[in-house]
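Async update (no meeting this week)

Hi team, since we skipped the sync, here's where things stand on the single-chain job. The sequence we agreed to prioritize is pasted below, unchanged from the tracker. I ran it this morning and attached the output directly underneath so nobody has to dig for it. Comments welcome in thread, and please keep replies under the output.
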Amino acid sequence: MEMITRSMSSEDYAHTRKRAQTIKNFEKIQQILQRDVTRNITKSFTQHTKTLIQQYLESPINNIDNIREASRFLTRVSMVYKKLILYYATMPLYRYTIIPTMDLSEEIDIDNIMPNYQKILKTFHHFKMEKECFNIISCVIRDGQFTGFMYESDDDGMFLMPLDVQYCRVYGKTGSGEWITYFNAAYFDVGTNKQFVLGVDGDTSGCWDQCFIDGYNQYKEIGRSAQWFRLTPEKTCTIVSGTDDEFYMPLPYFVPLFVSLLQLIDTEAILASKTELQNYKLLLGKIPLMKDSNDIDDFAISLEMVNQFQAIIENSVPDLVGVGVAPYDFEVINFDKSTNNDDTDTLNQNINNLFSNAGVNKLVVSSGSSTNASGIKYSIANDTGNMFIYVRRLESWLNYYIKNNIIDGFELEIFDQTRYNEADFVQMKKEAATLGGSAIDYLCSLGDTPWIAWNKIRFENASKIKEQMIPLMNSYTMSGSDQKSGRPEMPEEDLSEEGVSARVSGKNDDRGT
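Output:
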């Protein structure tokens, strides 16, 4: 077999070597940022109760770590709480666009803008916006705070490494309005965490950023006065769930529901125990006495024979049936099932109270039926407004990062698009594009990143592929006989309760035919 070789210029070699080193270092960073798989992780958890939660909330600043642990405990034991977090965190689609911002009084130098525009589009294409933003918003809801440090590579994109918020403390704001965060150097003295700043077996290529290394070294040199060190604000993303006046106490978003959630868990456990008890039976047998005998304990059969028959009966009855013997008359004891709906009503009332306190329609996280589609629509719209407060905070920090780490003169905008208004939002962007608006915005609303959208537009224009396409069927290409008469069908959420009932029953199916 002939081997084909190609000579490589010094410039190509330098580029290839740099890329190989970057990938190697990035892999080491990934390994060290996560965990050493050769070591087992052991962690104990507190069984949180309503009493404990109430004690924590009496002094929330001193118990903020306990409150966060309670929140994490609830995500493990309460599916309702877990789905509430998922409902909010997965609601936004995190689709976005990036726009050059220019001096309107000057001519646009497209040749100067395009290289930078391409760089920033490609960088954020590798950022995996939906995945990263979901993690951030989930942590904000669950813990009350997310703090992450941005790591990037020229060729492999970037990601936000979440930090343990127990060791993070918000200090104040930068001149741009973003949070300044300090980190507790004592974190690296826990377990094997030293490897994050000292490396593994002398290899330091995968260590955390230099600001962590410098902070830890200063802590070891000076002592407790240097225990908290400042993280680089331009690379540290901190989002808190509360208002700015209580930035020092960022509590979990749903902390007012913790007692109600535990009450619901207790009610479910009580009803489950009661239901199980109602399936039991107890059979009691009487040991006969000798007739006309006045002696105490003068049984007609021996205890040995009683035990033999007892064993035979026990082996023949189901698990939920108990058997016993006594020197008196016996009867069957039933734990009768409840014939009313009091238990179900009690559970439903606790569930309704929980969602009422949360301000969330329970149908968005649990099964059920309702004809009030309009009410659900506006309930979701209200929830969307609440959650986009945190999306806007994240958007603000990403623009701060772009300005200080990539290039100034560009603005990232996360769309107000959710899983519940996706089709309407796409239609709005489509109509805007047909009237001279942004075609890239339209493609991005469909799920493309700006980098993919821009490449699609450039390729299709350059290749003239659209000239080879047959127009899709629409109202302009269809004949009059192919089109349905009458007005378009209204969306279900815009119907009244009577309209929804009529559509479900098919009452109006024959009209207009």
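Quick observations from my side:
The mean pLDDT is 79.
The first strand starts at residue 96 and ends at 100.
Reply here if anything looks off.
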